[in-house]
Amino acid sequence: MNQQKKQTQPLRVACLGAGYFAQFHYDAWRRTGRVVLVGACDQDLEKAKATGLAAFEDLAVMLKMSCPDLLDIITPPPTHLSAIKAGISQGVRAIICQKPFCTSLEEADEATRLAEKAGVVLVIHENFRFQPWYRTFKHALDSGVLGDVLQLTFRLRTGDGQGPRAYLDRQPYFQDMPQLLIHETGVHWVDTFRYLLGEPEAVYADLRRLNPVIKGEDAGYFVFDYPGGVRALFDGNRLLDHAAENCRTTLGDASLEGTAGSITLSGDGSVTLRPFGNVTETVLLQPQSWKGFGGDCVKNLITHVVDGVLDGKPLENEARDYLKVIALEKMIYEADRQGRKIREVAYA
Ligand SMILES: NC(=O)c1ccc[n+]([C@@H]2O[C@H](COP(=O)([O-])OP(=O)(O)OC[C@H]3O[C@@H](n4cnc5c(N)ncnc54)[C@H](O)[C@@H]3O)[C@@H](O)[C@H]2O)c1
């Protein structure tokens, strides 16, 4: 009876974090149906107030006062485990947690187990697979129009990594991260490659730091091997750019090549199909001015979770599944450290 009542009422959503990326979450929540925003919390109260919502600087107080059904965690990894514990103990139904999920595989595993034990839905905010162009890739792949797919490639060319002021205006913490390119950004393609091609059977990586003002790596490759010689290549370089009016729309370009045809993602977010042996391209996804971030992928993910919680639809990106992304990321750094391909792919 109580459950029935909850399904028809809007989901009460409270958010932890009001920093740079949170702006895309608040905007997306405001454009999402069947939810009501009940609070914003940031240790910097002024930032929480700037959201225009009931503002808090202490998570426990926000959870008690605003009684959310869903907690959206938009703060950095060191805050994740304690925030998930707080949400669970306060009785939320669902939690969305930004990537990178917790500070280690062990912590992420603990958070996953706690949520599962409490029956709380825990979804990781891994938004890139929700970008419309990758949904178009998946649709083309599943339709068979590409024939046997042999190669998936993403070239990250954000163009924001040059010189002493690299990243300072948008995400200054990038300069101090001991692991940058893969841990902070490349991880989106670890997940997107899994979304498109499944789990790899071997991992190779070769990473480097080009800009001496930063601590971590800002360029490099990782290669995933799949059965039958199929490969996925991530080729990242933050100092170089790509042809786009806004290099942050897609962050680079991509292709998915098969024996019957190839599809290409361009920097404007358009996707084209070229049949094998042909020079004429068909547009599968038109360039358009998307709202929000990266083809409105934050809203797409949020809507997916709301539908999952309210309607019981199957969820992507649940924490248990996301542990595989963390395990693969660890293997990428290990492959780079050892300078060899890792064939012993072991998931959590
Ligand atoms: N999925 C994506 O596309 C994407 C893009 C950018 C950033 N991110 C991730 O989002 C997270 C936040 O990134 P950001 O760029 O917004 O960082 P930020 O530093 O701009 O903002 C973080 C905010 O969290 C607040 N905060 C930190 N600890 C807190 C605590 N204990 N209690 C309350 N507030 C606290 C800070 O005051 C700050 O306002 C990171 O994990 C980052 O990797 C994801």
UniProtKB/TrEMBL annotation:
<protein>
    <submittedName>
        <fullName>Putative dehydrogenase/related protein</fullName>
    </submittedName>
</protein>
<dbReference type="Pfam" id="PF01408">
    <property type="entry name" value="GFO_IDH_MocA"/>
</dbReference>
<dbReference type="GO" id="GO:0000166">
    <property type="term" value="F:nucleotide binding"/>
</dbReference>
<feature type="domain" description="Gfo/Idh/MocA-like oxidoreductase N-terminal">
    <location>
        <begin position="11"/>
        <end position="123"/>
    </location>
</feature>
<dbReference type="Pfam" id="PF22725">
    <property type="entry name" value="GFO_IDH_MocA_C3"/>
</dbReference>
<dbReference type="InterPro" id="IPR051317">
    <property type="entry name" value="Gfo/Idh/MocA_oxidoreduct"/>
</dbReference>
<dbReference type="InterPro" id="IPR036291">
    <property type="entry name" value="NAD(P)-bd_dom_sf"/>
</dbReference>
<dbReference type="InterPro" id="IPR000683">
    <property type="entry name" value="Gfo/Idh/MocA-like_OxRdtase_N"/>
</dbReference>
<feature type="domain" description="GFO/IDH/MocA-like oxidoreductase">
    <location>
        <begin position="134"/>
        <end position="251"/>
    </location>
</feature>
<dbReference type="InterPro" id="IPR055170">
    <property type="entry name" value="GFO_IDH_MocA-like_dom"/>
</dbReference>
